[in-house]
Amino acid sequence: MNSLLKVNDLKVHYLLANSVVRAVDGVTFDLKENEIFSLVGESGSGKSTLAYAIARLLDSSYVRIYGEIIFNGINLLELSEIEMEKIRGNLISMIPQDPSAALNPAYTVGEQIAEVLRYKKGLTHKEARDLSIELMKKVGIPDAEKRYLNYPHQLSGGMNQRVVIAIAMALRPRLIIADEPTSALDVTVQARILELLTGLVKEYGSTMLLITHDLGVAAEVSDRIGVMYAGKLMEIGSKEEILEKPLHPYTQALLHVVPRFHKKKRRLKPIAGMVPNLSSPPSGCRFHPRCPYRSKECVLQEPLMVEVEPGHWVSCNLYAMEASYHA
Ligand code: SF4
């Protein structure tokens, strides 16, 4: 499969008054056409920062970005804001975590979908209204004609997230970046929203980068999974490789905190220690203060990302003998 997006040695640093937070620090991966790739990790691992950096939605006054983000052959980091505006919405869309924060409380939900269609597609008011209602029906909003006139506070969280999905998919973008799209919703509606989103991604032939802290969600929908920790990618592989044959000690630890109801008498094992402060991250392997397998080498030297079998990459000294850098 061809790559739609290639992220090469990406670094995203927040400039604070007295320190620099290395939220993303040398991340390399690619997204294939038509796949769903999940980035998983604890809060503070840098996955949302990475997502917002790809969409160029971070405030450049206090953020520095280094490396390359090649989308469809173009390095997004070299584009002006005006050029980037043409890509956002048309080719890359973002679905944020909290729909109530994403929608404008002063406009009806229908008007917010229609505005995108008028502004980005040049439709007339009537055309935009008709297509918005069609989109609302497509994302499963009942009584779409009536709901078109509702304000966000008049809809449930799940319905608002459907509106956000309608806005994100309105122009059939090639890449959808979904940042924890269900974590602000009730458990009962999470599965339906995920099903809706992944169904639309497949139907439109899009590619999705899904950011989630929930391995259960990643297991449900992904083709491939990347595991992030403290601003670094620790492991990348197919869903089966990550869930059934995890190699990195952090991936293994993450799997031990996921409840599996079909397995009896299995105790959950919390990961000892805390996510490090990224203004002064640990030397060597960033996971070493929490890793039961650490050696002296782990403290001194950062492991390379190595391919242990085709498409299955891991950054850990336990596998470093097969070193060949992920390019
Ligand atoms: Fe553990 Fe060392 Fe591997 Fe890091 S490099 S995960 S400390 S064994």
What can you see in these coordinates?
The chain has 327 residues and is of the alpha/beta class. It folds into 2 domains: 3-91 and 174-269, 3-Layer(aba) Sandwich (Rossmann fold); 101-172, no CATH class. Helices cover 32% and strands 24% of the residues. It has 12 helices and 12 strands. The chain has helices at residues 47-54, 81-87, 99-102, 109-121, 125-138, 144-147, 157-169, 187-204, 215-221, 239-244, 249-255, 296-300, and strands spanning 3-15, 20-32, 36-40, 63-71, 74-75, 92-95, 175-179, 207-212, 224-229, 232-238, 305-309, 312-315. It has an 8-stranded mixed sheet, with helices on both faces. A 4-stranded antiparallel sheet has the order 2-1-4-5, covered by helices on one side. Strand 11 (305-309) and strand 12 form a beta hairpin. Helix 4 (109-121) packs across helix 5 (125-138), helix 4 runs parallel beside helix 7 (157-169) and helix 5 packs across helix 7 (157-169). The mean pLDDT is 92. Bound molecules: iron/sulfur cluster. Iron/sulfur cluster binds at residues 249, 285, 287-288, 291, 293-294, 298, 303, 316-318.
